[in-house]
């Protein structure tokens, strides 16, 4: 139980203070005894209630590396799949133009070898 002693009306600027009695007899004594005219006790909250500041949720754990290596190796760590023909996106335009003509010439030469018009190199 928290009891706040407020300043009386004749002393409006006086600071208030908070007392925290420890045992039930002390609480009963504070509630039953008369106080001086200077301070009037005011009941604030029950002894079993807590202020919102003290009832915050506990922070949860963000991550743990336990068992992660075993799980990763259960089916094996795979290498990333590589494509047969990597993309030429972002390469030099002059190189791409030349590459296109070179591929056309290569296909033409392979076609001639297949037909027997040209000797294999």
Automatic annotation (TrEMBL):
Coiled coil: none annotated. Residues 68-86 have a biased composition (Basic residues). Keywords: Ribonucleoprotein, Ribosomal protein. Residues 50-100 are annotated as: Disordered. One of its GO terms (cellular component) is cytosolic large ribosomal subunit. Pfam families: Ribosomal_L29e. InterPro entries: Ribosomal_eL29. GO terms for molecular function: structural constituent of ribosome. It comes from the Eukaryota. Gene3D superfamilies: 6.10.140.1730. GO terms for biological process: cytoplasmic translation. Belongs to the eukaryotic ribosomal protein eL29 family. This is 60S ribosomal protein L29. It comes from Capronia coronata CBS 617.96.
């Amino acid at each position: 139980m928290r009891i706040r002693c407020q300043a009386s009306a004749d002393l409006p600027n006086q600071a208030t203070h908070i007392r925290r009695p420890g045992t039930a007899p002390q609480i009963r004594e504070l509630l039953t005894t008369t106080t001086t005219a200077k301070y009037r006790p005011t009941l604030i909250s029950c002894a079993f209630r807590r202020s919102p500041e003290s009832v915050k949720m506990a922070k949860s754990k963000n991550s743990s590396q336990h068992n992660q290596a075993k799980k990763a190796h259960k089916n094996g760590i795979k290498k990333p799949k590589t494509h047969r023909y990597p993309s030429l996106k972002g390469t030099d335009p002059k190189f791409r133009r030349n590459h296109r003509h070179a591929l056309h010439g290569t296909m033409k030469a392979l076609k001639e070898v297949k037909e027997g018009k040209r000797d294999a190199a």
